[in-house]
Amino acid sequence: MALNTVNGERGHVLVVAIVLAATMSVLLAMAIAPLRTQAQRTKEAELIYRGEHLAEGIRRFYFKFKRFPFDLEELVDSEPRMVRSLYPDPLSETGEWDLIYLTPKDQSTVRVLQRMIEPVAEEDGQPGQDESSVFAVKTRQITGIRPKSSETGLTVYQESQIYSDWEFTALPKAENILETLQHALKPPTSSGADLE
């Protein structure tokens, strides 16, 4: 009889160990889910920061050189630098961005920007710019970037959760054009780079 009691106790200990392991697994899974969500939100916030930073650099490049860059490296290679670094896309394995190029449909927005900066250019002793000169350049000019990933994220940005819908462009939306111009014309910080 003593032998059966020992085997019975061993079975109970095994059941308790299995239940304990299952409970720990469930609790661990519950703890990891918010951590994954937080990590994803952090990557998305970093994506937005980097995209807006590079778009602001493209905008500053336009105001300085009266054209948009032909490649992103011009933002770092120009004097003064327009951005600190060409940040990679944090959600892409390669880190590459999709480039948004200047198109004829952008002409009206560029005209508004040109008309707004003409008085500033004339005060600086620079002649005003012909409205079509930026379009006379035959090389493709970059006006913005977007993530390559078409996955759906957690954050709603520009009324979408799909990453590839998020456009970071130097061309402002019509309702934001005055705010964009004021921000772009403020004096650069210490090294001439956008340090915000």
Describe this structure in words.
It is a single chain. This protein is mainly alpha-helical. A hairpin with a 2-residue loop joins strand 3 and strand 4. The chain is elongated. Helices cover 51% and strands 11% of the residues. The protein has five helices and five strands, in the order H-H-E-H-H-E-E-E-E-H. The strands form two sheets. It has a three-stranded antiparallel sheet, with helices on one face. The C terminus is likely disordered.
Q: How are helices and strands ordered from N to C?
A: HHEHHEEEEH
Helicity level, as a percent range? Answer: 40-55%
Using only CA atoms, what is the Rg?
Answer: 27 Å
Uncertain regions spanning at least 5 consecutive residues:
121-129, 190-196
What profile does the largest beta sheet have?
Answer: 3 strands, antiparallel
Q: Approximately what portion of the residues adopt beta-strand conformation?
A: 5-15%
Q: Total helix count?
A: 5
Distance N to C terminus:
79 Å
Number of domains: 1
Helix/strand-derived class?
mainly alpha
> What best-fitting shape do the alpha-carbon axes yield?
elongated
**Spatial strand sequence of the major β-sheet:** 1-2-5
Question: What is the arithmetic mean of pLDDT?
Answer: 78
* Total count of strands: 5
Q: What's the structural blueprint in terms of helices and strands?
A:
Blueprint: H1 2-65, H2 73-77, E1 97-101, H3 107-123, H4 133-136, E2 142-147, E3 152-157, E4 160-162, E5 168-169, H5 177-185
In short:
The chain is mainly alpha-helical. It is built from five helices and five strands; from the N terminus they run H-H-E-H-H-E-E-E-E-H.
